[in-house]
């Protein structure tokens, strides 16, 4: 035979994929790969992305033809990872256990293991009598790669993880065959690019390159969690403090539900005096800047463990409010008890007391916000000082003569601001309450940052990093990036009908119509031109393998 | 299928990485602006709780608060206050002249002395009581004079006429009379001049409370279609007939009473004993004094108590050692905490630097 020529198809990963996966693994995010490629391709992709490693203890291959064999192979893998789980009877279907499905907890295994399972076996493994076994074995492994997977199976795997693990799932893909998976996961991410817009249209987030996922999760996701928790904690604090003061006053007003504050203040407190500062905090706050967030993926872990806002955090917030309300009532109470002003006239009247308490409260919550804010932009400065200024401006305005003449019954506090706030006594009281409320918090935080500093504390103490170029080179691996196409495809799986849902009609449209893996493109996109005729940006590589990730949640207190 | 996906891409018009200025009908790029605001790169001040900021702050607060507290305490201790508890009298409505002799150890004090009456267990801050008034009527509004607000119920009308001033606060006006006499060594009683104006807030007297009828000095005509509050002996235009500037709604005793107190134990300014013109004679020289009280005000029914207080005033108000003590306490606690945290920082503070973050 005369050799005429050779063809080759290059299907490279996008830039930065390996590094992204490495960073996300460091952030305690478990990564599974669900691809329609055949096993060799998937394996090679796994090695090139650093999901599978040479140093791994073992990589299990599950590629059996019957349910019993699949079960046996999964069981063997599990026993090899954790030999002392021989006696576990884990095969109880969830219906016997009652309505709430059993939760598969994380188990610690010694060593790194990988699992590669093909679509045929996965079809058996996803049946209801074997899915827990499969999930348990898969979760013990560091990496799971499912190859020859149909779009429906992708969605089924995602749903399996969602159902039985206390984890948040994120599915990222770029093709039409990833749409079901993207929709099934908690968070769906679509990569816009060569494959069209179907994945993008059905996703929650979309961007153009896989490596942007790192920024999405480690920078923006983390900041979003932090901001939300700080916002919630502060909001509860300021409102509980505001309200508990009335509880203490009840003992001194005959339990008649007389408010401590002026009604105008009550209306404007949440609307004007404290709304914008907390909004500014929840929009702009950053505890660690973007560079450090990317450099230290371990910063992501507190979000996974729900550390910033949990039942415990809420109780601490309530206790703090209780203490603050004690200070905010009893210090003005004692300071104005049976006293007079500096010209002898009345200084302990209800309106003066209300104004003193209002001022103490506003200043205190403002100082507390200042302590919580760790990123003071211009906008934050404007909001905080502006709100405090608005408090004084509006207070003086509401207590002027003009408004009183307009509606005497509504503005009955006339003259109070002028007569009360010119007393040095009053300002000393305000300063005392603010310091007394904030000091324990500052001391507590400083104490804990010295005794047991968290990752955030350690990173914050470092100077700002220099901007670094991301490394584009992959880790070297002894494996070469080639695969032979000598294994047969998944036509058998398709014709067996095993992957179909029980309740779905026998003919499912669109699931098998492609029949081709996304890694295989008939037209030469990699050749540098598209059929439409436009010169493509050579940097724009073909889409990566579809990936699914889930996070392992260790906190069981939910 | 593959061809259709390319068509879909063209229809969407999304060209990642390509320039948006194509031919006619080119779509604007969806890339967000690369401004500092939108990319969250605004310059910011990032304060963190380091030892270099927290510890000096604690010590500073301690060092500032303790002298302030000492100053407040000294000032408060220098204020002279003299309190006389009212003796419990059996009947409540009977007018009794109670004569008490007191040896007031007035040291040499050359400033104004303020005379207060104090009440205890009197809840002027009860919600229903606080809202039982009509500020429009008290401001001299003619329509409110004859038609007071509903908040004044049940003290709104009496004998089919509207009550002026209406409400429970006005109805419970304090009406005991206190007089102070100095008992001269030679036996004669000299009445001490008690000033009854200048005891209410300026804004109250001149803005909040106005007599109706503008500048009509004949208040009995202005109030002719109204009745007096139920528990009063005299109508409002007879509160001080000798002084038209202190009669009617602008009577200062009335104004002082209408300014409801915040707590169940309170004092209200009754009279001022002015200091002597020459600053050489003490305002109340040492010796014997006699307090005459006309008991009109019944407090026994609710277990209330009355007292009379004579007090001087300083820049921080009346005698109240609380702020001084509080400042000293907080200052010392702060200082102590600073020391403790300094020790802790010295022992454990290296954990932030040495323990490297596992990479």
UniProtKB/TrEMBL annotation, chain A:
Entry's transmembrane regions: 231-252, 264-284, 313-333, 353-371, 378-399, 426-448
Key word Plastid present: no
Catalytic activity: ATP + H2O + phospholipidSide 1 = ADP + phosphate + phospholipidSide 2
GO biological process, one term: phospholipid translocation
Region listing for Disordered, in residue ranges: 511-544
Keywords, ordered alphabetically: ATP-binding, Magnesium, Membrane, Metal-binding, Nucleotide-binding, Translocase, Transmembrane, Transmembrane helix
One Pfam assignment: PhoLip_ATPase_C
Cofactor: Mg(2+)
GO cellular component, one term: trans-Golgi network
Positions with a binding annotation for Mg(2+): 174, 178
GO molecular function, one term: ATP hydrolysis activity
Enzyme class: translocase
Documented EC number(s): 7.6.2.1
InterPro entries assigned to the protein according to its UniProt record, in alphabetical order: ATPase_P-typ_TM_dom_sf (IPR023298), HAD-like_sf (IPR036412), HAD_sf (IPR023214), P-type_ATPase_IV (IPR006539), P_typ_ATPase (IPR001757), P_typ_ATPase_c (IPR032630)
Residues the entry annotates as binding ATP: 35-37, 148, 154, 177-178
Superkingdom to which the source organism belongs: Eukaryota
Family: Belongs to the cation transport ATPase (P-type) (TC 3.A.3) family. Type IV subfamily.
Protein name as catalogued: Phospholipid-transporting ATPase
Organism: Cyprinus carpio (Common carp)
TrEMBL record, chain B:
Key words, A-Z: Cell membrane, Cytoplasmic vesicle, Disulfide bond, Glycoprotein, Golgi apparatus, Lipid transport, Membrane, Transmembrane, Transmembrane helix, Transport
Its membrane topology: Multi-pass membrane protein
InterPro entries associated with the record: CDC50/LEM3_fam
Entry superkingdom: Eukaryota
Residue numbers spanned by region Disordered: 1-32
One annotated Gene Ontology cellular component of this protein: transport vesicle membrane
Ranges annotated as spanning the membrane: 48-74, 322-344
Localization annotation: Apical cell membrane; Cytoplasmic vesicle, Secretory vesicle membrane; Golgi apparatus; Membrane
Pfam families reported in the protein's UniProt record: CDC50 (PF03381)
Gene Ontology BP, a term: phospholipid translocation
Claim: Cell cycle is one of the keywords in the record: no
Family: Belongs to the CDC50/LEM3 family.
Name of the protein: Cell cycle control protein
Protein source organism: Cyprinus carpio
Lineage summary: Eukaryota, Metazoa, Chordata, Craniata, Vertebrata
Gene, per the UniProt record: LOC109088039
